[in-house]
Amino acid sequence: MYGSQTGQAKAIAEDIAEKAPSHDLEAELHCADEVDKKFNLSNEDLFVLICSTTGEGEAPDNASKFLRRIKKKTLPENFYANLRYSILGLGDTNYTNFCNCPKEFHKRLRELGANTFYEPGWADDGIGLDIVCDPWIEGLWPALSKQKGIVKNDADPINNNETASEKQEKPNDDRKDGPATDDATSVTTAEEATPGLRHSTPPLSVAALSVPTASIPYLSLTWDHESTFTSPNTYHNGCAFPSSSSSVFQAPLKKCWRLTSDDAVKTALDVCVDTRGTPLETYAPGDAFGLVCPNPLPEVDLLLHRLFHPDSLHPDPRPSADTPFVLSLLENSAKVNAEVPQFIPSPVTARYLFSHLLDFRALPKKLVLRSLAENCSREEEKRRLLELSSKQGSKAYDLYLRQAGLGVVDVLCAFPSCAPPLERLVELLPRLQARSYSISSSPLRSKGFVHFVFNIVEMGESEDLVAKPRRGVCTGWLDKLTKDIQKKGQPIFDDVGAELVSSLSVSHLKLLNLPLFTKPNPHFHPPEDLSRPLLMVGPGTGVAPFLGFLQSREKMMEVQQKTCSEVGSTWLFYGCRHKDRDFLYKDEFERLERSGVLTHLVTSFSRDQNSESDGVKAGDKAPAPKYVQHRVHEQSEEVANLLSDSSAMVFVCGDARNMARNVNDAFIDVLMKCRSLTKMAALNHLAEMRDQKRYLQDVWA
Predict the structure, then answer these.
(1) CATH class of 2-148
(2) Looking at residue 465, what is its pLDDT?
């Protein structure tokens, strides 16, 4: 069974189900919410659950009903007494509630009498899911075989720590098609080769390899020369995106402000869109939305040139990238629950497919590299891709692909003899996902309009990247789209509708539409009770929702005729590099502070040290606090009061990898210092606040 929000857990479950017959096992594949619909789990004796976590540790959409069902207190303690199970949880340690949902399943199943037959695994996407997933799945097969009483004989391919789900690839021993060890052109054995994406050196280049079994083909492609393809009116063939609560709609882009100076390290843009008459016209402060974006055109053209160029080494020359084709299921495929991806229209062209639907920037999984290796005509390139997909090549995979940020387009350009059929790429590449943005305005202040802010992402500069410098897929597109209307300065939040973009023609305005869908944030909202104090921590673009919080609070105070002394205090901890270069929404926050709506604006500027504005007098040697967690320590008594106040709410938004974790540690230190709590007591106090929805995070890695 699987519980999957974006498809990763589902893909792993499908792979396990497909490989079961090679281990003399038969598997049924089900979505978790199909329990008690298509089968009764209490009648089963053995099952495996692959499950991810979404949001604040919640269950994926297709597993939430099952979790609620087994949490019913009316269930007897022996409800699953006959059940043996194991769980592979997918999570990310950059987030607070790591693998929370699968761990909840694990806890509840044990409470209901079920027993594990194999130790659960908790995979961390922060360092790479495969680090846990691969060995966990490898060990799953003998554990399952033991439960089913299957005895392996000496002829079984499981040996040398290699499972039947893996194939042992050796250098030129007795393989006819193996790369020759004395071939001077071989990338795997040339003594003078410098290790890199394309080249390896001993011991890897001469090692026997344990590689995953290539995935099972299941799609067939038919070129439709008679049809004319027209871009569809719907996005992704009308298929819903994960966590969406509406269909995709068009919202006119009205304004764009550049919030940072020319010499800032990062460029931040505030974009205002017209949401009147759309599902996003009504929202709550703290909500987000999804934005559907295309792939970068230069990289699309490069990939299409690579796949369709007349000099391509592909054995079967294809029509052009603009020739329509139809996908169908391959007859007699052993793929479990095979289906043509529903988000791909029929017919479709390769140009539209790679421009709008498939993610060729995503880190290719080892199984993808294994499959690409089968489509190399040069043995040295095949060998190198097999190395990168193998257990023995894990360090090389991490160094040359994961850390370098490479995608399939980079791999195909690095290995010119690799010529996978187009339908194979459709099978291997994930769906291009929408990007999520927090709303940085209030519906009470900017009626019918929504603001959002983002940094233009700049990637690394690995020599193997086909586009350098590489920009974020969505932020790079938004920057290009708004170039002609970007304006330096502070955004306008009042009477946006009255502002006319006189410099743009009507025809140009029609082109500046953003495809959006609503994506409510279920808990990350300010309280309606204005007497409750707020503690907000949001450095960089993480400050976005808090501007909406405070603007709404200001309007609510006006309507309720409340003075600043009649409402709870509001604290905002904000940080950036330079006060004069990248202080986002500076004028608006300082105005809110002057008005008393924001009672405490606590800032830290990590590159502006020893400045008097940061509380350090001229001549002092002590550095000013660099980051928001340092400011939390500095304001420890006030922060401790807020953390101890049962009516106060704490919100943290921004980077999960460092900031959120460091701020949480600072809260623990503050409670230990100012309330004399032990570390365990402080941890329990914060956990209780989370359970009561008084300590909320909206963070991303």
Answers:
(1) alpha beta
(2) 86
Spatial CB neighbours of 309, under 8 Å, sequence gap ≥ 6 = none
Q: Domain 534-700 belongs to what topology?
A: Rossmann fold (3.40.50)
**3-state DSSP of 577-642:** CCCCCCCCCHHHHHHHHHHCCCCEEEEEECCCCCCHHHCCCCCCCCCCCCCHHHHHHHCHHHHHHH
- SS3 for 648-698, per residue? CEEEEEEEHHHHHHHHHHHHHHHHHHHHCCCHHHHHHHHHHHHHCCCEEEE
Query: Above pLDDT 90, what percent of the chain?
Result: 71
Q: What architecture is domain 245-293+434-519?
A: Beta Barrel (2.40)
Q: What is the mean pLDDT of residues 260-270?
A: 96
Question: What is the rounded distance in angstroms from the CA atom of residue 292 to the CA atom of residue 422?
Answer: 24
Domains 2-148 and 219-225+297-428 share a fold: no
H or E element that contains 379: helix 379-389
Quick one: pLDDT at residue 334?
85
Residues 219-225+297-428: name the CATH superfamily.
Answer: NADPH-cytochrome p450 Reductase; Chain A, domain 3 (1.20.990.10)
The answer, as to whether pTM is greater than 0.90, is no
Whether 212 contacts 367, CB under 8 Å: yes
Burial class (CB in 10 A: 0-12, 13-18, 19+), 144: buried
pLDDT tens for 156-180 read 333 333 443 445 555 544 333 433 3
Specify the higher pLDDT residue, 180 or 663. Answer: 663
Q: How many Cβ atoms from other residues are within 10 Å of residue 520's Cβ?
A: 17
Report domain extents, the chain: 2-148, 219-225+297-428, 245-293+434-519, 534-700
pLDDT of residue 497: 52
The mean predicted confidence, pLDDT, of the chain is 88
pLDDT tens, residue by residue, 50-75 = 999 987 788 998 999 999 999 999 99
Q: State the DSSP string of 463-516.
A: TT-SSSSPBPHHHHHHHHHHGGGEEESPPP-SSGGG---TTS-HHHHHH-EEEE
